[in-house]
Structures are given as C-alpha cells and as structure tokens.
Amino acid sequence: MKLNIVEYPDKRLRQKSKEVTTFDENLHKLLDAMYPFMIETNGIGLAAIQVEHPIRALIINLPDEEGEQHPEDLLEIINPVLVQKGGETTYQEGCLSVPQFYEDVKRYEQVTVNYQDREGNRKTLKADGLLAIAIQHEIDHLEGILFIDHLSYARRKKFEKEYKKLQKERKRTK
Ligand code: Y12
Ligand code: CO
Fold first, then answer.
1. Distance 120 CA to ligand 2 centre (A)
2. Containing domain of residue 100, as a range?
3. What is the rounded distance in angstroms from the CA atom of residue 82 to the CA atom of residue 59?
C-alpha cells in the first residue's frame, strides 16, 4: 500500500478521525504500511490521518537509549481514550506533517489510555515521559489538532511566517 504524507496547511489534517469498527485485513494492511513509512521518514509516531486515512488509529515506536527503534516495541493504538492525566511537562515536539519545525509544547506528564489493538482487544496503558507526550501528540491528530495549535499567539505568528518561507524554499529546490 502506497502512503503519502499530508502536510500543513492541508485542511485534511483538520478532520476529526472516525472510530474504527471493523478490525479486518484493510486495517491490518494500513497499519503494516504505516510502520515502514514512519521509520523511513525518521518518525517516532504517526496517526492514520497523516497518511490520508482519517480513522482513529495511530502507531508509536520510541527509540531505545542508543537511539535505535525496534519493531517489537511498536505500539498500535486504535480508538484511544485518555482516562487519566496528571502533572505537567514541556518537550520540544516535531511532526512529520509539519516538516522542519520544532517547538516546546506543554503536556500532561502522565496519562492512562484505554484503546484497542489491531484485533479489537481492549487494553489499558499507563505512560509517562516521552511515551506520554507521543500519545497526547498523536491523539490530538485524531481530533484535527496539531502541536502548533498549542503555541502562544506570538509564537504561532512567527511560525506561520517561517513556515511559509520554508515552503517556498522547498518548492524552489524540488
Ligand atoms: C515527542 C514529540 C513528538 C512526537 C510525535 C511524533 N513526531 C515525529 O515522529 C516527528 C518526526 C519528524 C521527522 C523528521 O524527519 C524527516 O522528515 C526525514 C523531521 O524532519 C524534517 O522535517 C526535516 C521532523 C519531524 C512524539 C514524541
Ligand atoms: Co504529528
């Protein structure tokens, strides 16, 4: 399955993703294609809406201490619901749909998420650190929210200016 990244300011990123109700081969094929796509593009998290499939599915594969990503650590999270959240942390986030831009975002430090796996089995995951941040970033995508939406008014203005410039430059060098 060929996947294409949807990049800001594409309005498709603003759709609310639909609940997954059928845990069939189509879902498995999409998840199977998302993993190599994310690894090849140096990602650690990817929501289906970012690759033109607005369904409530996301994957996360955090690197180990050596910076290596292992397929056995892959998390496939379908229909997630945050059921507990607490604390506060700030991390410099990036997103495959907002290339070449990183900015500090404030998030909950610990979260508990209920979700389903690719077979539809119900699971609960308690997370903190980078995993908690990644879960919140990816769940935001399912609601049509991007990390840049969390910036202050002034920082967002600066981003829009810088991003337009970068886009022009990318078009010119393509
Ligand atoms: C902490 C913060 C954010 C997340 C969400 C997942 N974010 C990513 O996976 C970001 C990936 C990313 C990869 C890039 O590299 C390439 O595109 C080759 C990148 O670089 C450029 O755009 C040039 C930017 C972001 C989880 C946890
Ligand atoms: Co993202």
1. 24
2. 11-173
3. 16
Q: What is the CATH number of the domain that holds 121?
A: 3.90.45.10
| Domain count across the chain | 1
Cα 37 from Cα 164, distance rounded (Å): 25
Contact 130 CB / ligand 1 (< 6 Å): yes
Q: Residue 5 falls within a domain, yes or no?
A: no
Q: Do the beta carbons of residue 15 and residue 49 sit within 8 Å? A: yes
**Closest residue to atom 26 of ligand 1, CA basis:** 134
Residue 98 domain flag: yes
List, for residues 60-105, the tens digit of each pLDDT value: 999 999 999 999 999 999 999 999 999 999 999 999 999 999 999 9
Residues designated catalytic = 138
Residue 46, pLDDT above cutoff 80: yes
Give the residue, out of 39, 58, 95, 136, with the most ligand 1 atoms within 8 A of its beta carbon, to mutate for a pocket test. Answer: 95
Q: What is the largest CA-CA distance in the chain?
A: 48
Q: CB of 39 closer than 6 A to ligand 1?
A: no
Would you state the pLDDT for residue 174?
A: 75
